[in-house]
Design goal:
By secondary structure, this protein is an alpha+beta fold. The protein has four domains: 34-177, 3-Layer(aba) Sandwich (Rossmann fold); 178-369, Hnrnp arginine n-methyltransferase1; 378-518, Rossmann fold (3-Layer(aba) Sandwich); 521-532 and 577-692, Hnrnp arginine n-methyltransferase1 (Distorted Sandwich), CATH 2.70.160. 21% of the residues lie in helices and 33% in strands. The protein contains 16 helices and 38 strands. The strands form ten sheets. Strands 8, 11, 12, 13, 15, 16 and 17 form a seven-stranded antiparallel β-sheet that branches. Strands 25, 28, 29, 30, 32, 33 and 36 form a seven-stranded antiparallel β-sheet that branches. It has a five-stranded parallel β-sheet with strand order 5-4-3-6-7, with helices on both faces. Helix 5 (97-109) packs antiparallel against helix 15 (550-560) and helix 11 (387-400) packs across helix 12. The longest helix is centred in the N-terminal third of the chain and has 20 residues, at 42-61. It is globular, with a radius of gyration of 28 Å. The mean pLDDT is 92. Bound molecules: S-adenosyl-L-homocysteine (SAH) and zinc ion. S-adenosyl-L-homocysteine (SAH) binds at residues 38, 71-75, 77-78, 93-96, 99, 122-123, 144-145, 158.
Length: 693
């Protein structure tokens, strides 16, 4: 069997369907899975074990046999905990076949084959009865089906079904309940992930202000969750307007309703300000008494000593439909609406006459009407709102634009054509080139955006692929200034934005002989780092709470090594602190004033390690040299030299290449240098790399 995988080709900018072997999907899923991170989550594991112990004991004390249903068993960990705690029998359900196979191996290895039956099915397909998958209904229900938003992985419908068909009435559930907490905040930084702020431009003829269209101002945005490592958000970046409030709870030992519903709480702001954001997280009580509690509360809510790092559960940022000015001591209602898989929020002023009555406040799930939220993801909004970045582009554009410039911009959903227009002469035409997957939304939004700023006849939108650009598109003029951020929505790794170079190559015949290309070049930079925590997601676990899970480790290793050369993976490093062990080093350069060469660009060398620490991997990022003296970095912004603390661009993902010492969990004697070899294949637009410690 073959599978087809959609992937953007960085040399053509378009989606391509690649034929992959049947193992491909499964290796990708395992390699990028969160299983390793869960097995390293000591706090979670210990508390599940305590909760399972307590539940088995309660059932035994009643003189009953303890029959466990473990939905989503993964490695089989929770079933093995139950069997060790004295459970009589466990049904371990796992829908993902490679995981179910691994669970069988791990259960056998740990000597529990007679107590645990692994069933490779979705829980809703499981049958009960003498000839069924389960002999009888279970009296203990154990699950770990939660995501950062609690319900996003389908926990509610799974529980609803399990209570109807798979467990006894009055069963014990581990966890026993989950509670969702919220806190209202004002934060320019987080609000900038949803709104486009006006852009101020000092033009020749006075200040110009670029405004977002009204459609965008009132757009509720997208329903998809924004989950982040909130513990990396400094307290100076937001201001809390309310106490932490319990929003809703789900009792897993009773029948659970998946159907859409709303919850409303009354809030009194503790401070006046602009309510923009609802921060949210949850905790789970493993037992009815609430003594065994596992919480995702961020650092300002719980003592830092109790913080467990984890990546499989973080915190959520919800954007209110619009900003509401609130005064300290006023009464407001905060409503959480949810369907089976997602949650959204609404804030309303309480009126005296509706004090008691629960108003019908359920609102529709947010749907983007302006299309900007489809074009720009949250980090991209943040990037477009980054004033110091915009200033760099303004500064460089001012240098290269002349009154008679013919300018062509190549970048997805970019403000550059508008900046270029304001910074150049009035009669000059600017061209924007559109293509690729979001083409229709891009074209639509750009029309609306240019219109809102009275630019519809100043900036021409060309809807064509670069290789199909015709002289008529350009009114038979040659391009004198070619600009790009560059930014493309389909880029996954930093160097995928080199698509700009390919597009530049495709439009070569339309460029004037003295064309200025901005950026004039790009460079790939690299640094060796020690991660504070991120290494856990790719590091083997070995023994987890006394259970041998090495079969899982081996499976992850196999999947990571599935391709001959390992791949770098994208991570937003502002969320994942690391310490630099080497100086940042420029490893490759790309000259945009010339076309993409036929041959590959390769380099090799050695990086000296300056500090003691564990070399977990290399971080790679791009820098764009807009003009000779103006550069923007999509990676390292600042490096403190004594300790090696790094500050990363908060709007971009950097590429992380984990060394095999992390994946193999080898202890190396401190290396003094790392050797590297890199090859940019100009045919595929991909970079292959290899490191030796
Ligand atoms: N219980 C393990 C793994 C948790 S990850 C542990 O705690 O370490 C959740 C697992 O549940 C995944 O492997 C996923 O494939 C599986 N899963 C999710 N919903 C399921 C369902 N309704 N039926 C069967 N498996 C499910
Ligand atoms: Zn929108």
């Amino acid at each position: 069997m073959k599978t087809f995988c959609g992937r953007a080709n960085p040399t053509t900018g378009s989606m391509e369907w690649l034929e992959e072997g049947e193992d491909y999907d499964y290796h990708q899923e395992i390699a990028r899975s969160r299983y390793a991170d869960m097995l390293h989550d000591k706090d979670r594991n210990v508390k599940y074990y305590q909760g399972i112990h307590a539940a088995v004991s309660r059932v035994k004390e009643r003189g009953e046999k303890a029959i466990v249903l473990d939905i989503g068993t993964g490695t089989g960990l929770l079933s093995m905990m139950a069997a060790s705690a004295g459970a009589d029998f466990c049904y371990a359900i796992e829908v993902f076949k490679p995981m179910a196979n691994a669970a069988v191996k791990i259960v056998e290895k740990n000597g529990f084959s007679d107590k645990i039956k692994v069933i490779n099915k979705h829980s809703t397909e499981v049958t009960v009865g003498p000839d069924g998958d389960m002999q009888c209904r279970a009296n203990i229900l154990v699950t770990e089906l939660f995501d950062t938003e609690l319900i996003g992985e389908g926990a509610l419908p799974t529980y609803e079904h399990a209570h109807k068909y798979l467990v006894q009435e009055g069963c014990e559930a581990v966890p026993h309940r989950a509670t969702v907490y919220v806190q209202l905040v004002e934060s320019r930084r987080m609000w900038s992930w949803k709104k486009l702020f006006p852009v101020h431009i000092e033009a020749e003829d006075g200040e110009k202000i670029l405004v977002p269209p009204s459609e965008m101002e009132n757009c509720p945005g997208l329903p998809s969750v924004c989950d982040i490592q909130l513990n990396q958000m400094p307290s100076s970046d937001f201001s809390t307007l309310s106490d932490v409030v319990k929003m809703f709870s789900v009792d897993f030992s009773k029948p659970v309703q998946g159907a859409s519903t709303c919850y409303r709480v009354q809030l009194e702001p503790v401070k006046s300000g602009k309510a923009q954001i609802v921060l949210s997280w949850w905790d789970i009580d493993m037992d009815p008494s609430g003594m065994i509690n596992c919480s995702m509360a961020p650092y300002w809510v719980k003592p830092t000593s109790a913080l467990q790092w984890r990546d499989h559960w973080m915190q959520c940022v919800y954007f209110l439909p619009r900003e509401e000015p609130v005064l300290q001591g006023e009464k407001w209602y905060l409503t959480a609406c949810r369907d089976e898989y997602s949650v959204w929020y609404n804030l309303q002023k309480a009126r005296a006459d509706e004090e008691e009555q629960k108003a019908d406040v359920c609102v529709e799930s947010p749907v983007c009407r302006c299309r900007a939220h489809l074009l720009w993801n949250r980090p991209r909004f943040g990037e477009l709102n980054d004033q110091s970045r915009t200033r760099q582009y303004i500064k460089s554009l001012r240098k290269v634009l002349k009154t008679d410039s013919v300018c062509l911009c190549i970048s997805d959903g970019s403000l550059l054509p508008v900046l270029a227009h304001y910074l150049g002469a009035k009669q000059v035409q600017y061209f924007v080139l559109f293509f690729r997957s979001l083409h229709f939304s891009l074209a639509f939004f750009s029309h609306v955006f240019f219109k809102a700023n009275d630019l519809e006849d100043k900036i021409k939108i060309i809807e064509a692929r670069p290789e199909l650009l015709k002289p008529s598109h350009l009114e038979d003029k040659k391009i004198s200034v070619l600009v790009g951020e560059p930014f493309f929505t389909t880029s996954l790794l930093p160097w995928h934005n080199l698509y700009f170079w390919y597009a530049r190559t495709a439009v070569s015949s339309h460029l004037a002989s003295n064309v200025t290309v901005l950026p004039q070049s790009a460079s790939l930079h690299m640094m060796i780092v020690e991660f504070q925590d991120l290494w856990r997601i790719r590091s083997p676990c070995g023994i987890c709470e006394g259970f041998d899970v090495r079969a899982m480790d081996d499976m992850i290793k196999d999947s990571l090594n599935f391709r001959e050369s390992k791949e770098a993976e994208p991570h937003p490093l502002w969320e994942y602190p690391c310490k630099s062990l080497s100086e940042p080093q420029e490893v490759l350069t790309f000259d945009f004033t010339k076309t993409v060469p036929q041959h590959c660009l390769s380099t090799e060398g050695s990086v000296k390690l300056l500090r003691k620490g564990r070399s977990h991997g290399a971080v790679l990022w791009m820098e764009y040299h807009l003009t000779a003296d103006v550069s923007v970095s999509t990676g390292l912004m600042q490096l403190s030299n004594e300790k090696g603390n790094c500050e990363w661009n908060p709007h971009c993902k950097q590429a992380v290449y984990f060394f095999s010492s992390v994946i193999e969990s080898e202890i190396l004697s401190d290396p003094t240098a790392v050797e590297y070899a890199m090859n940019f294949d100009t045919k595929t637009g991909e970079i292959a790399m290899d490191f030796k410690l």
